[in-house]
């Protein structure tokens, strides 16, 4: 009897596995087509990446990556279905051969269609938007890294679980937790508690997990896009490869014995419950302590009840509660330490003291909003009493004009203030020096000092684009300049009255806290 | 040859629970048809899964022609395991399954597969989900035979087949086994079937091996004796049991029908009749037991079955 070569076995096995994933493949295909289509449309129709490409194309690419969570269980049916376990474990194949065959199918059904769709995007970028090619290539690498990360996490979770339910939710929880935990800890414990908003260190650029997901969950959409440098993306790919290898080492130890057990390894159960609970607590920390307890309780008890099925004991339930209490205690202790040590020594100056003069009642806010592609263009100023001018019937030109006027005013009247600021904050960015350079983009002028000057302001409560402190007199001067330039403004109160809305002072932006 | 030495299988779900298999040792010679008998949950399927490398044994070892079977493709190439379900194949046509198994088993024979499928009148191009339960089992049997492995392991292989098809499938399997000198190992609750086609059998109960031998030797090892003893001291069943046990015979069961006692003894007929002569019986006539009777008496002797409950109720 001639022994079958390992390659023949892998090849033949992978053909059948492919058939097991028909539906999932279809889903990936649809998402890849949508992703490629959106990218191409974004580039051809708008000629700029910022309009269509960054949003819809990336969103669908993100969904393609997430589809890995569905494909992996379809490939590893023998780990949660006893009938498949009988067939697959009794086949004349080693665990290594089975794993290789599954990886091959994963590459074929998940990674390859994605690479093809992205390759089309790159080709289109080279043809129609040559200047955007570096961005497209970076985005491609970023998406590939996200895809590899999802597959790696899904493989790791699948090899530790013996049930499809656990495999699905643990993959999701782990992906979220791994992506979020470091940025959340940094933003809450360092920045949040230190009272400092800094862009000097970008926690989303770390090569771990999905930066976009973490950015969204932490509500930093306007601040960061989760951009990583090429070396970071390469490190991220290497880390994902490590996940693949760890999953292989665990899979090799699996037999039909653990098929059907919700979570096979106690260590994985502990990691899952602790990581998920800690992430939830960190996400809710500084927003609402009660919410942290409530959602944390839901997560840890949910995992405990689901993964223990009918074998739930008081001891196991107590462990999950202990995990929550432990996580809360850790975050509180770390939070207290962070608070007591000025964000672990992160804050070099007591800003509130340095800029005390800007936090009085007379402080007004200068604000300009600019939404390219949207119907409404706004440019305005408001103070804390009732002024909130809105540019009525504005258009692109008017908004740009208003923007330039306001930006100039800010630049001029606050130059000394800004210089002064820079002595204390090395991260204040003034991107309004050359407005035209950003004419097609969302303006991103980060005057993060805003959070320093308004007492009681929540650290993550941002307004758009330009937000700056000035005196009411300065505000009125700018308003007059807008009027002189033919830009109609109405007050916030008038705006409500004209639209038959009930005016409440707390509805004013900046007054809700 | 399959050698099972000191195999214990403990699923470890609860510390208080007995292992599913305790220290099982047996040898399955080449070219035989081996029947696995046992009560429900005795551990037959677990043993089959251990033999086909689905589970690793907690302790002990299983060797196929001298090689450990677990995670060893060389050893597993010699085995084809058919479990008691077919749901996992629902999405495939028989032809697709043929391609799958052909890639896995080096000796897979297309001609044998087509011949068996044609004999069973099964379509090659239809999904198994459109087949009846019996047809699915027939298709899997066809694949198992076509894999041409040295050892075929069937767990409740004939479930879901009608009597005519049962006979036909049995004939196809046994013909193939005899032609190739292969070994068939099958577990079944149908003792008549086992006794018809098997030449070796083992009985397993609550994870422990009760017996394992050639079927003829097994049958000869048990005797049903029609016994009439006039000695008043042996009138009671317990006294009679003690008396017979005192002669060095293991009594499995005694049933009284008037003055005639039907005694089931675990010993060959000659030995039983010769030893019982010490009780000066008026009648001591031995009859060999069927496999079914052996199964029932062995398990009843271990407190399994409902006979005692029914008697107690009466």
CATH topology description of the largest domain in chain B: Rossmann fold
What is the C-alpha radius of gyration of chain B, as a whole number of Å? Answer: 23 Å
CATH architecture assignment name of the largest domain in chain B: 3-Layer(aba) Sandwich
**In total, how many domains does the architecture of chain B comprise?**
2
Shape label of chain B: elongated
Order of helices and strands of chain A: HHHHHHHHHHHHHHHEEEHHHEHEH
Instruction: Sketch the major β-sheet of chain A.
Output: 3 strands, antiparallel
Using the alpha-carbon principal axes, give the shape of chain A.
globular
Strands in their spatial order, largest beta sheet of chain B: 6-7-8-3-9-10
Low-confidence segments of chain A:
49-53, 348-394, 413-471, 505-513
Description:
- The complex is a heterodimer of chains A (513) and B (314).
- Chain A is mainly α.
- Chain A folds into three domains: 7-264, no CATH class; 272-348, no CATH class; 353-507, no CATH class.
- Chain A has helices at 6-20, 22-46, 53-66, 68-75, 82-90, 95-128, 133-160, 164-194, 211-217, 230-253, 266-284, 289-308, 314-340, 342-345, 351-354, 396-413, 415-424, 450-453, 472-484, 492-498; strands at residues 364-369, 378-383, 390-391, 466-470, 489-490.
- Chain A has a three-stranded antiparallel β-sheet with strand order 2-1-4, with helices on one face. A two-stranded antiparallel sheet of chain A has the order 3-5.
- Chain B folds into two domains: 2-217, Rossmann fold (3-Layer(aba) Sandwich), CATH 3.40.50.300; 218-313, 2-Layer Sandwich (Alpha-Beta Plaits).
- In chain B, 36% of the residues lie in helices and 26% in strands.
- Chain B has helices at 44-51, 73-76, 94-104, 110-119, 133-146, 163-180, 191-197, 215-220, 237-246, 269-276, 291-301, 307-313; strands spanning 2-9, 21-28, 33-38, 59-64, 67-68, 79-82, 151-155, 183-187, 200-205, 208-214, 223-228, 251-257, 260-265, 283-288.
- In chain B, strands 6-7-8-3-9-10 form a six-stranded mixed β-sheet, with helices on both faces.
- In chain B, helix 4 (110-119) runs antiparallel to helix 5.
- The longest helix of chain B has 18 residues, at 163-180.
- Residues 307-314 of chain B have low confidence and may be disordered.
- Chain A binds chain B through residues 1-4, 6, 8-9, 11-13, 15-16, 19-20, 77, 81-87, 89-95, 97, 255-257, and chain B through 11, 49, 52-56, 70-74, 76-77, 79-81, 83, 85, 87-88, 91-92, 96, 99-100, 102-107.
């Amino acid at each position: 009897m001639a022994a079958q070569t390992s390659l023949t076995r892998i090849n033949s096995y992978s053909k059948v596995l492919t058939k097991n994933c028909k539906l999932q493949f279809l889903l990936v295909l649809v998402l890849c087509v949508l992703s490629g289509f959106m990218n191409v449309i974004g580039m051809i129709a708008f000629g700029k990446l910022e309009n269509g490409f960054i949003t819809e194309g990336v969103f669908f690419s993100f969904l393609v990556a997430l589809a890995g969570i569905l494909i992996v269980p379809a490939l590893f049916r023998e780990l949660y279905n006893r009938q498949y376990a009988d067939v697959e474990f009794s086949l004349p194949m080693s665990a290594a051969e089975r794993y290789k065959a599954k990886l091959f199918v994963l590459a074929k059904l998940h990674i390859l269609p994605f690479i093809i769709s992205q390759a089309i995007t790159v080709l289109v970028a080279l043809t129609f938007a040559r200047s955007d090619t570096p961005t497209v290539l970076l985005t491609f690498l970023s998406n590939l890294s996200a895809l590899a990360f999802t597959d790696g996490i899904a493989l790791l979770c699948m090899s530790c679980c013996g049930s499809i339910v656990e495999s699905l939710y643990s993959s999701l929880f782990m992906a979220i937790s791994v992506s979020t935990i470091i940025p959340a800890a940094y933003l809450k414990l360092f920045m949040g508690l230190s009272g400092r908003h800094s862009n000097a260190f970008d926690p989303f650029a770390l090569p771990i997990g999905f930066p976009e997901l973490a950015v969204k969950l932490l509500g930093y959409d306007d601040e960061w896009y989760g951009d990583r440098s090429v070396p970071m993306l390469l490190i991220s790919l290497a880390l994902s490869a490590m996940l693949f290898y760890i999953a292989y080492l665990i899979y090799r130890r699996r037999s039909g014995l653990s098929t059907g057990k919700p979570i096979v390894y106690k260590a994985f159960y502990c990691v899952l419950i602790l990581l998920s609970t800690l992430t939830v607590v960190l996400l809710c920390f500084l927003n609402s302590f009660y919410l942290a307890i409530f959602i944390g309780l839901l997560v840890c008890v949910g995992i405990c009840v689901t993964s223990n099925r009918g074998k739930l004991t008081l001891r196991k339930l107590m462990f999950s509660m202990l995990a929550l209490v432990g996580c809360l205690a850790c975050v509180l202790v770390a939070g207290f330490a962070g608070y007591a040590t000025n964000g672990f020594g992160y804050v070099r100056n007591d800003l509130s003291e340095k800029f005390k003069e800007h936090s009085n009642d007379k402080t007004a806010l200068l604000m300009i909003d600019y939404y390219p592609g949207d119907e409404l263009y706004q440019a305005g100023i408001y103070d804390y009493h009732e002024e909130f001018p809105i540019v009525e019937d504005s258009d692109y030109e008017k908004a740009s004009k208003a923007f330039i006027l306001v930006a100039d005013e800010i630049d001029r009247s606050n130059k000394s203030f800004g210089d002064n600021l820079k002595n204390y904050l090395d991260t204040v960015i003034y991107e309004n020096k050359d407005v035209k350079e950003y004419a097609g983009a969302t303006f991103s002028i980060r005057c993060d000092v805003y959070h320093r000057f308004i007492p009681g302001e929540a650290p993550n409560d941002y307004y758009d684009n330009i937000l700056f402190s000035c005196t009411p007199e300065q505000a009125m001067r700018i308003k007059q300049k807008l009027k002189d330039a033919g830009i109609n403004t109405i007050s916030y109160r008038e705006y409500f009255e004209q639209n038959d809305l009930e005016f409440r002072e707390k509805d004013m932006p900046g007054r809700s806290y | 040859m399959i050698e099972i030495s000191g195999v214990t299988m403990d699923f470890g779900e609860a510390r208080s629970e007995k292992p599913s298999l305790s220290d099982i040792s047996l040898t399955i010679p080449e070219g035989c048809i081996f029947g696995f008998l046992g009560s429900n949950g005795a551990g037959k399927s677990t043993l089959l899964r251990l033999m086909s490398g689905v589970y690793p044994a907690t302790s002990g070892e299983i060797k196929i022609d001298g090689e450990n079977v677990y995670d060893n493709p060389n050893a597993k190439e010699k085995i084809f395991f058919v479990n008691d379900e077919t749901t996992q194949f629902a999405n495939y046509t028989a032809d697709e399954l043929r391609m799958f198994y052909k890639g896995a088993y080096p000796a897979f024979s297309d001609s044998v597969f087509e011949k068996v499928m044609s004999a069973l009148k099964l379509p090659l191009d239809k999904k198994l989900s459109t087949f009846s339960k019996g047809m699915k089992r027939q298709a899997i049997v066809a694949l198992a035979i076509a894999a041409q492995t040295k050892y075929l392991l069937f767990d409740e292989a004939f479930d879901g087949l009608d009597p005519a098809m049962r006979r036909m499938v049995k004939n196809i399997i046994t013909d193939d086994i005899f032609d190739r000198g292969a070994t068939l190992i099958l577990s079944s609750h149908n003792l008549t079937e086992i006794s018809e086609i098997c030449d070796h059998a083992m009985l397993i109960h609550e994870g422990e091996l009760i017996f394992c031998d050639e079927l003829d030797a097994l049958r000869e090892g048990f005797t049903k004796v029609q016994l009439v003893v006039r000695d008043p001291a042996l009138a009671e069943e317990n006294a009679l049991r003690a008396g017979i046990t005192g002669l060095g015979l293991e009594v499995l069961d005694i049933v009284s029908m008037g003055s005639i006692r039907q005694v089931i003894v675990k010993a060959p007929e000659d030995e039983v009749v010769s030893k019982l002569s010490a009780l000066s019986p008026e009648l001591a006539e031995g009859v060999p037991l069927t496999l079914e009777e052996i199964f029932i008496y062995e398990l009843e002797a271990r407190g399994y079955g409902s006979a005692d409950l029914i008697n107690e109720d009466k």
